Prior knowledge:
The complex is a heterotrimer. In chain A, 53% of the residues lie in helices and 15% in strands. By secondary structure, chain A is an alpha+beta fold.
Amino acid sequence: MIAFQPEEAQSALAESVHAFAQRYLHDNAREVETKRALPPQILQEAVSLGLTALSLPEALGGAGLNLVTQAIAYEALGWGDLGSSQALLGAQTGHHLLAALASQTPTQDRLRDLAETSVCWVAPVWGERPQADGSLAWQRNAGGVVLSGESAITLGAQHAAHLLVAAGGQEGMAILAIPSAAAGVHFRPHALALGMLAAGVGSVRFEDVRLEEADLLAVGETAQTAIRQALTTLAIEQGALEVGACRAATEYTVAYTAQRRAFQQVIAAFQGVSFVAADMAIETEAARNLIWKAAVQGDKGEDAFSTAAMALAHAHQAVRFVTSNAVQLLGGHGFVQDHPVEKWMRDAEAQVLLFGRELELQSVLGDALWQAGAKDGTAGFRLAENA
Amino acid sequence: MIDFTLTPQQKQLREMAHAFAQGVMRPYAMEADRIEDAPKAYLQQAMALGVGLDLGGAPGQSGAERADDRPQERTANRNGVLLAEEIGWGDPGLALALPGPGLGGPPVALMGTPAQKEKYLGMFRGAKEPMWGAYALTEPEAGSDVSGIRTSAKKVEGGWILNGRKIFITNGGRAAWNVVFATVDPTLGRAGQRAFLVEKGTPGFTCTRILHKMGLRASETAELLFEDCFVPDENLLGGEAQYQARSNGPAGFRVAMQTFDNTRPVVAAMAMGIARAAYEYTLEILRQGYAPTGHFYHSARERLAEMYRKIEAARSLVWEAAWKGDIGEPNSKEASMSKAYAGRVSLEVCAMGLELLGPTGVVDHPVEKLYRDCKVFDIFEGTNQVQHLVVARRLYAAHGIRV
Amino acid sequence: MDFSESPEHRQMREMVRDFARREVAPGAAQRDQQEHFDRTLFERMAALGLTGIPWSEKYGGAGADFTSYIIAMEELAKVDASLSVVLGAHVSLCSWPIDRFGTDEQKERFLTPLAEGRALGAFALTEPGAGSDAAHLQTRAQRQGDTYLLNGQKTFITNGGAADTYVVFATVDPSKGAHGVTAFVVEKGMPGFSFGKEIHKMGIRSSTTQELLFENVEVPIANRLGQEGEGFKIAMATLDGGRNGIAAQALGIAEGALEAAIAYAKQREQFGRPIADFQAIQFKLADMATAIEASRLLTYHAVWMEDHGGGHGMASSMAKLFASDTAMQVATQAVQIFGGYGYTVEYPVERFMRDAKITQIYEGTNEIQRIVISRALLK
Ligand SMILES: Cc1cc2nc3c(=O)[nH]c(=O)nc-3n(C[C@H](O)[C@H](O)[C@H](O)COP(=O)(O)OP(=O)(O)OC[C@H]3O[C@@H](n4cnc5c(N)ncnc54)[C@H](O)[C@@H]3O)c2cc1C
Ligand SMILES: Cc1cc2nc3c(=O)[nH]c(=O)nc-3n(C[C@H](O)[C@H](O)[C@H](O)COP(=O)(O)OP(=O)(O)OC[C@H]3O[C@@H](n4cnc5c(N)ncnc54)[C@H](O)[C@@H]3O)c2cc1C
């Protein structure tokens, strides 16, 4: 039955995450950005609340939240501050791969061990070959495995104990686990002025990194399936964070324009201002709904890959629209650091580059649509149906 | 619960509506556009199948009434938007031309006395000939500004005398009855407004002309004239007691507005159905003409994905507004969001479809027609700007600012 | 740099504007509704010297520049895009290749009556199976002694049926692709040359669009434009040149729509004041005017280059692309500003909106323009 009402437990979770986000992410955001790192006590607090393990299944020591609940929690975090959220969560994107692998394999000891550390998925890539980062390759060598190449720009790797990488090789696509302290692993931080300054943005170079057979978590079909599923859930996480950022920026802008005066009026009285605020609210609402839609589909055990790509593309568009208009509606004040909106806009512009860009995501969806065709005679859309 | 699945009944409902749209509406769509009317054969088929248009059934009961009425959840609004999407997909002009109380349904259901409901909604049950209800609010000088209507209602012995003009009234000329909004005293603003049920043939009430439009041509858009038109007391919608009881609040206006909260998502759903039809036509034609490789394919698939994504986003807003209406919560913000977004997106999607199709799309082609049809969905039931006003008002209300 | 209008150009603008307002505007809505092409308007244009503006006086033209022609197109489109389409096909598509590629004798025979407006011209390239890809025509021209035998079918032909003179493209050898395409002048009344289905359109409805049918039409060799196999080049050059005309047409449509919207917004009252008092409306108008100004500059710059012998291909593509997108946006916004009234045929804005669409499509869709522009950038 069509409904948009979070359950009580979900609302309660949202409230506690919200309280955390307000206190540790929102109020400290400038400081976190200036120091380019999340203070350890914030991380500890988050870990104790389970906020760094929202996407882990119970089998791997997580809370086993379904995707809708995850989306609700991530939105609350994103509301606090997008950049700080990534500083907190960026080193844990590997959870999505672990969760996907856990749902496929019975032997989960290794996965559980990994899940106990921080584990970053290095450069998740969508597009024609969602799994492949052009230059990363693995091969077998003397009873072990060797990984070489450089990842695309990614986030959180520096802060993680383990890196997960999807790389191509003669036997096909594989998922590998690499201790970040392993010989031959080089982090190349990028001096991003744009945004996400505390999240550890950079690429990782693997120079003939030698790994054990056991580090090869999955190969071939199994790896492909896991990557696809992990991209789906990662998209829901990222999209939900973006929706949170949209909501924060809309609320902030409405509050600001409701009291800022110009030409003897509050500027909200000008339609050039209030109509834009209305559009910000509309875009936010639609973005949230689409993320929820992907999450519901995933929770029902359906393949939500294209829906998630669509939802993330929409969230990208929304977060850029909303945050840049927030700056605009604050005028000169939006441009300076006395208000958070300029940071939100910068973070948003960096965010949409890192987890699949709008065009890539749309291509994923476009291919699926083309393949499915417009199924006539039943009730229209196959993908839309989800019923 | 957060969910997007349909109940088995809803699926069935939608499938029936789809079959009707596909099998009965579409075959007449191009002809109807050309003749600027709904073909008789179409209306007869609809009658024979018992398909009619009632935008909202009996919406808007308060939560309490619902609770002791029946335990299960009300779904009228959600069902309504599911149906609306399908018939919009079939053909929007023919959808609005469907016999039934149409836009006139909600105010009667919402506010009518039991006798009025029985008479004016009951007449559609088992009707042999096509019949319509209509909703006459807009005036030549009062469109967006609904509080500015000037059609006057003067109390006389046993009834009321109406004087004034209405314009853009869907099915207004052929309707068996119009819900006509008038004012007893313009200086009272909204508090002075009353709604009347005016039957066709009432002396002093005439349809002065039918307007010609760029699209939605299958639907009749009428101009109405009231010249010393006498309407008996029993046709004051809801009865005077209701207006008196609510005399601290502007009842007539509130009815007009509550109607919108229920019909805006429906109108938005139709717009979305149009967009979906345009998307599907475009996709299928391109699939026949191109292999999934090459430059054109690569840009086309992104366009198609954008079209699809925006339709999905619109649908989600429409469903949300309908759901909120069903659970009895105030939904005017959500209703306006859905209409503002779907109206705009529908036009965008149709334009993208035309662009992708090139010349094929503009000559004698359904996508061209849909493009003409959909523009009005950004205009009626509150223009895009009016929807923004409503949303902005709700956003700023929390800060005590009236925008 | 100089942005002022010369006295001749100003005079041309005033003359055409006056004609457009007085004689073209009044019946435009009705002609649109009835899909009626009114030949007498074409004759009036002939009398005013508009049918051969850029051609030499020797061939009955006005001996003026292309800027003057663009001015005429713009002013006509402000009130009736269809009529500007008629003139555009006549001048840019039919007369232009004859002027550029015809022999003196051909110009005498064909260009003079066209320029003087005794004959109406059309351009027949598109076929049911060949639109954007004009190198693969099906219409055949078989050489038989001093004549060619034309067989085939053309579609989407502006002025089709109404026109007297047709520049027709056919292939002498389909296996040669673009190198087989050859151009001919075909005249109405030639045995075997007939008209097929009339095509109903969403916009520019008072210009005719019709199919042409060729069944063993004997076309004398003297009617061949250029050499065998030069047709593709001629067609492409013609379309290149025509783009400025489309840009001017789009510009005119947008201006007409803006003018109407401004007047309406000032006079329409809601909530006790003119809707022009609402910022939502004001800002729309400001955006519309700004985009129009940019189209104007692009368009007149492109035609200035044409008049001054610069390579104007890319400038024309940019002008056509931008002006047509602008026309579409502006007309759509104008309908919105008119509210419900905008949707009815009682005001011109819905017609502007329908008319604007085609400017994004014909003479190379906007996708094609983007390709042309990006190729020039990347070469
Ligand atoms: C980096 C920087 C450098 C600057 N340098 C200089 C300088 O050298 N000298 C100097 O004098 N100033 C300078 N300024 C100030 C700048 O000109 C102002 O910030 C600008 O004029 C906007 O004013 P505001 O910030 O007060 O915004 P506000 O006036 O508060 O505007 C807030 C928002 O409301 C909108 N708004 C306001 N009124 C209306 C209305 N009537 N209708 C519709 N919308 C409305 C605005 O467009 C904006 O979106 C600078 C600002 C910055 C950020
Ligand atoms: C095909 C069709 C069918 C219709 N069917 C019905 C029907 O069945 N019953 C019925 O009662 N009506 C019907 N209408 C009328 C429709 O609801 C009105 O057209 C609509 O409400 C807009 O009013 P208007 O046309 O007078 O535009 P106006 O109110 O004059 O608006 C003109 C422009 O000004 C803008 N504007 C107005 N006020 C503001 C503001 N405060 N701030 C910013 N911008 C503003 C508008 O958005 C619009 O762009 C129909 C209309 C059409 C075209």
